[in-house]
Every structure is written in structure tokens, then in C-alpha cells.
Amino acid sequence: MSEEVFCVQKIKEGDQMAFCSFVELYSKDLYYFALGYVNVRELAEEVVSDVFLEVWNNRARLDEIIHIKSWLLVLVRNKAISYLRKEQPDTTVSFDEIDDFHVPLFQSPDNKMVSREEIAKINQAIAALPPKCKEVFVLAKIEKLPYKKISEMLNISVKTINVHISKALNIISGILCE
């Protein structure tokens, strides 16, 4: 039984220690994903806290969710957009209108394999992607979500996801080969 399945069963029963493990398991990924939308650390932390509060409040239905991480990412995305709307109450905010999807800098787990210069160049290449393309790339290649889940999450076709990924890889490889 995976740690995720075990946590979900225990959380459904109201086990707070299992919930703490669940938070520990997902908080880092969700935080960086939220930061990609709101670009403010404190706000990203608040978004993630609200998501975990929603998880706890809806724990009785957790076992109905087939892909927990996909569901959590959708919650983060929706809450981040809601927070952006609160900051700009006179305007309508949707993802298509967000100027940039920021990808926090990633670090290599083994600096011997990838130098700091190479990591900086990779981060620069990802940062150069158009916002929607960057979002799809992050979900597919960094968060490792299946294209079908991304399709449902962003309400775009799998073919469109393929186009975004292809475009992202072309841009990234072009920058890395300079």
C-alpha cells in the first residue's frame, strides 16, 4: 500500500498524524506550484494552507478522488486565481489573462552531475517560455502529470498539450544549445 493511499484512509478516519504526513508529502510541490501563479512567497503559503484546510474539511470524500495530486494542483490553481482576483477586485482574472507563470528555480539533487551554470541555463530556458506553454511544461515534465489529466485540468485538448510541449522543448533546446 502506498504512503498516499495509507494517508488518505487514515485522514478519512480523522487521524491528524496521517494528515501531517500528507501535508509533508505534498506541501513543497504545491507551494512551488502556487508560487508560479502568485509570485509572492507569503501568498503562496496562504494558498497552500487553504488547500490543506479544504482537504481536511472534505476528508470524508477523499477516497472518491482517483488522482490526489492532480486534484490538489487544481485546487492550488483555482485558489491562486481567486487570490489574484481579490488583489484586483475591479478586474476579472483568469489564467489566460495572467501575464506570467513563474517557475521557481530548481536545484539539482546532485551538483556533481549538473553544474550551477547548467542549472541556471535550464532555469533561464524555462523562464523564456510563453505563460501557457510554461504552465503545460511544468505540469507535464516537472509535476509529471499525465497529458489526459492536464487536458482536464486546463480544459484543453491533448493535441494542444503536445503542441505546447513540442514548442517548449524547441525553445529550451535552442537556448541550451547557444
Total of helices: 8
Shape: globular
Rg computed from alpha carbons, rounded to a whole number of angstroms: 17 Å
State the end-to-end distance.
Answer: 46 Å
In percent terms, what proportion of residues is strand?
under 5%
Low-confidence stretches: 91-99
- Percent in helix: 55-70%
Order of helices and strands: HHHHHHHH
Mean pLDDT comes to 80
- Major sheet details: none
- Total beta strands: 0
Topology at a glance:
Elements: H1 3-12, H2 16-38, H3 41-57, H4 68-87, H5 116-127, H6 131-142, H7 147-154, H8 158-176
Briefly summarize what is shown.
By secondary structure, this protein is mainly α. The chain contains eight helices and no strands.
3D structure, described in words:
The protein has 178 residues and is mainly alpha-helical. The chain is 68% helix and 0% strand. The protein is built from eight helices and no strands. Helix 3 crosses helix 4 (68-87), helix 6 crosses helix 8 and helix 7 packs across helix 8. Mean pLDDT is 80; it is low at 91-99.
Keywords:
0% strand, 178 residues, single chain, mainly alpha
